[in-house]
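Please check this chain.
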Amino acid sequence: MADLEKALPNYLKILDKEEKPRFKKIDRRLLDKKIGDAYKILENCELCERKCHINRLRNELGWCKVGNKMQISSIFEHLGEEYFFVPSLTIFFISCTFSCQYCQNWTISQRIEKGQHMTEQELAQVISERKNCKNVNFVGGEPTPHLPMILKTLKFVNSSLPVMWNSNFYMSEKSMDLLRGVVDVYLSDFKYGNDRCAERLSKVKNYTEIIKRNHLLAFKNSEMVIRHLVLPNHAECCSIPVLNFIKENFRDRVVVNIMDQYHPQYITMNYPEINRRISDEEFEMVVKHAERLGLNFIT
């Protein structure tokens, strides 16, 4: 079992009611400035590293196809997250900044679902009423395209729920700056150990440089749980390098969730090497490497 005291001491204190979450600590004038800066970015959007540079305030649509309003797939008390996070008030936003060819939530990420529009005040009311949850969990798809609206939502929240940013970590540096001091725990999805696999399977460029940078930035300012989904035939090229990076930079100061629940979804029939479940041998290889590195991990 992972040592949560080492990796999540502030989050555990919040749950023990010894302190309030960071978004409640933040000076309201500073939060107003972050909101203003975030909406300014929408005029020439570069919230993620695709940097489409379109004016979303005029409802122009870039890669993510998200305009100037929140599009939400569902909101519910999630019992399937890491055991120390549940029940988690999970808000699934429509769309994504990736196009993972095996996406488990492809109807959300690829905008097959249309979702529903909510105002920031309406969403804040939902969050404020769920006081039995251990956190508010912004996810998707991907929450990054909705960052300005999420910040504005937090302005209206009357609750002590910790804020969790559940993301593929392809945010721009500007978005990372906006998140600093707002997020209590980052829950990242660290997929690949090289750019070739990332571009082939998720259609993104410069993956390792951007994702590593953002993990280092997040670690400076908040606590972090890193998820890694083991893919078939990608243990050596992806899983091992990801775990090595975590060891070199974070040691046991983060929790690593090594996940074995991959199953073929979406359009994996076009990618023979991932069109199957992972084998026991592949998963055991990754877990044993984490043990050798002395990582603070769960499975």
Remarks:
- The mean pLDDT is 95.
- The domain at 4-298 is CATH 3.20.20.70 (TIM Barrel).
- The beta strands are 70-78, 88-93, 116-118, 136-139, 163-167, 185-189, 223-229, 255-259, 297-298.
- The longest strand covers residues 70-78.
